[in-house]
Design goal:
By secondary structure, this protein is α+β, with helices and mostly antiparallel strands. It is built from 18 helices and 15 strands. The strands form three sheets. Strands 2, 4, 5, 8, 9 and 10 form a six-stranded mixed sheet that branches. Strands 12-11-15-14-13 form a five-stranded mixed sheet.
Length: 600
């Protein structure tokens, strides 16, 4: 046997070369574990020239990762995992796999030796379009009073459900001209959430967000088709869908005085049956200042949009503006009328136990309604009210805090507002940019490299709407500044919602490889179809766990349960879907402008 040092070194070199080639050419030998729950990733994919990040949780022997073909035979990219980060809101330890420099279009896995590989993802233009279309189409499945035909609804087709042509004035809503027991008709609209009731307050922020999405990206939405009955009628589908709810909202205004009823509802929630099986009496209940001002804001915004579609929708814009101004007058006469359901039930029967959406602070509603009416009419009386609330505190929008919606609209039309000085515009602009910059400043410490989850306060009931609304604010910051970084950080939250989060779920039903199968949603539970109704954003992690159901994980960023019981984390709601629609479609609309994709 030849044992010279030279021969030994040659053998050692050949041995090293052999195994290096094996690992590079056949990485599947070390990835036999299959899909790993430790790898969290946007389950749809990435834009060719956009940010691309996966997160690895738990222990990892390997310090490297690969991007491989879906047959695991071809290694196309190799990178190093980041140092470990420890989450402040769970016991998870994370490492980041950043492959942003990999730009080749196709279908791939992120693969890690001794761990396994991610769900399949795609790199292409329009990477998030399936979520963009699905989240908007989700509203079609929530429509009330019309059958969902198979050619539009697929296997989720169903009968009309609640016709709402015989709805009673509840004693709390009685007036001289509409006494208790009066029958009115209030058909249409959307089921609010997992239940079968319709609420004006929650429709307020929902409609405002959808209409703002259109106003910010009208050209994009002009080409977006969602296969609904109105598609192709000369009106963009985002508006077609909003109009279906708008027409219902208009029926909720008392024509005698202009006030708006809080909701159309059963006395109690329906059982988990299909809409057509429900028989409970329907009521409209007490008018309130919040509902009336939300209505005023939405109808004023709709009026200025729909004036451009008078051929397709004759008279609708005029009706909206008249309804808006009439509701404003009612609110001036009733400036502090709270909808307090508990107090109402002490005075009137039957008791109403469905969602209350009670609110006792109306400063934000006054500001939003005044803003929308002023933008649409240029009437100085609305500006005067606007000015008196300009310095009120504003936060991320929610159903009971809508002041920021006024900021968004005023800044959108800042060049066409004769009474709004540049100092006011700059003040509002700085407010939004300061919030956005605060978000960005803390991302380096985030275990999932997202804006979402920097505070325990992010993980509330409807936490996924927090993530989506943060993304909307960041898009607004981009529009105000022109700085692409804000879109990058907005995209980080979309990645969070589509799978790059502590639970590993893509939170939009019917999208991705692992999305909720058992949302708290009556139709999805009762329709006999295995898959839930698609395009619905579930609430997300909520350590409050107010449903008292069984949760496997209870830490803030993991307190989520994919079960029908878990309404505190797994219900759906129209106000959560709206910022998801805005965020996904905004990023799709901006992808070429910010350089994520090449023009084709």
């Amino acid at each position: 046997m030849n044992t010279t040092p030279k021969h030994f070194l040659n053998r050692l070199f050949n041995y090293f070369l052999y195994w290096t080639l094996i690992i590079l050419i056949f990485p599947s030998l070390t990835f036999s574990q299959g899909v790993s729950a430790q790898i969290k990733i946007n389950q749809l994919g990435f834009y060719p020239k956009g940010p691309k990040i996966a997160i690895v949780t738990g222990d990892s022997v390997s310090s490297i990762f690969y991007v491989t073909s879906t047959n695991l035979r071809d290694t196309l990219y190799k990178g190093n995992l980041s140092p470990e980060k420890r989450s402040a809101y769970s016991s998870l330890i994370t490492r980041t796999a950043d492959f942003s420099s990999f730009t080749t279009e196709g279908n791939y896995f992120v693969s890690i030796p001794e761990i396994g590989h991610s769900y399949v993802f795609e790199i292409n233009n329009n990477a998030n379009r399936p979520a963009a279309i699905a989240s908007l189409k989700g509203y079609f499945y929530q429509r009330v009073s019309m059958p969902l035909e198979e050619k539009y609804a697929g296997k989720w087709h169903r009968s009309a459900g609640h016709t709402d042509t015989v709805v009673y004035i509840h004693p709390s809503a009685a007036s001289e001209k509409r006494p208790a027991g009066t029958v009115i008709s209030t058909p249409g609209g959307w089921y609010d959430a997992g239940d079968y009731n319709k609420y004006i307050v929650n429709s307020g922020i929902t409609m405002g967000t959808l209409l703002s999405a259109y106003e910010d990206f009208p050209d994009y939405y002009s080409d977006l088709k969602t296969n609904i009955p109105e598609t192709g009628n000369g009106v963009p589908d985002v508006l077609n869908e909003a109009i279906y709810n708008l027409r219902w909202m208009l029926t909720m205004q008392d024509p005698n005085d202009g006030g708006v009823y809080n909701k159309c509802t059963n006395a109690a929630f329906d059982a988990f049956v299909m809409p057509g099986a429900t028989k409970a009496t329907r009521y409209v209940v007490q008018k309130g200042t919040a509902a009336t001002l939300d209505f005023a804001a939405v109808t004023a915004q709709a009026a200025r949009i729909l004036i451009n579609y008078t051929n397709q929708l004759p008279g609708l814009a005029d009706s909206c503006l008249a309804a808006s101004e009439k509701s404003w007058i009612w609110a001036l006469a009733n400036p502090h009328l709270e909808y307090n359901q508990a107090l109402m039930n002490q005075k009137f029967s039957p008791a109403i136990t469905t969602g209350g959406y009670g609110d006792n602070n109306f400063d934000d509603e006054w500001f939003w309604a005044a803003a929308e009416l002023y933008i649409t009419t240029k009437n100085k009386r609305y500006f005067d009210t606007l000015g008196s609330h300009l310095k009120d505190q504003v936060t991320l929008p929610s159903w009971n805090n809508v002041g920021m919606m006024g900021y968004y609209s005023l800044l959108r039309f800042s060049k066409n507002l004769p009474d709004v000085g540049s100092d006011i515009i700059e003040w509002m602009k700085d407010k939004i940019l300061n919030i956005a910059n605060e978000y960005i400043a803390h991302v380096p410490g985030s275990p999932f490299s997202t804006v979402m989850g920097q505070s325990k306060k992010d993980f509330i009931w409807g936490s996924n709407s927090v993530a989506a609304n943060q993304g909307v604010l960041l898009i607004k910051a981009y529009q105000l500044s022109g700085d692409k970084k804000y879109v990058d950080y907005a995209l980080s939250n979309l990645d969070y919602l589509l799978g790059r989060n502590a639970t590993g779920y893509c939170f939009l039903t019917g999208i991705g490889s692992r999305s909720p199968m058992f949302p708290h949603h009556r139709e999805s539970t009762a329709d006999g179809v295995t898959d839930p109704v698609p395009g619905l954003l579930v609430g997300g992690p909520n350590p409050g766990m107010q449903d008292h159901c069984t949760y496997e994980f209870k830490e803030p960023e993991t307190a989520y349960s994919d079960s029908v019981c878990a309404y505190a984390s797994n219900e759906i709601a129209i106000n959560w879907n709206a910022p998801m629609v805005y965020l996904t479609n905004a990023i799709e609309a901006l992808q070429q402008e910010v350089g994520y994709a090449e023009k084709k």
